[in-house]
Amino acid sequence: MNGVATDDVEYVGFWVRLAATLVDLLGVMFVVVPVTVGLLGGGWAYAQGGAAFFFNWVVPGAAFVAFWVFKGATPGKMLFKAEVVDAQTRATPDFWQALTRYVGFFVSVTPLLLGFVWVAFDARKQAWHDKMARTVVIYRRR
Question: What residue numbers bound the domain in which 105 lies?
Answer without folding.
Answer: 5-139
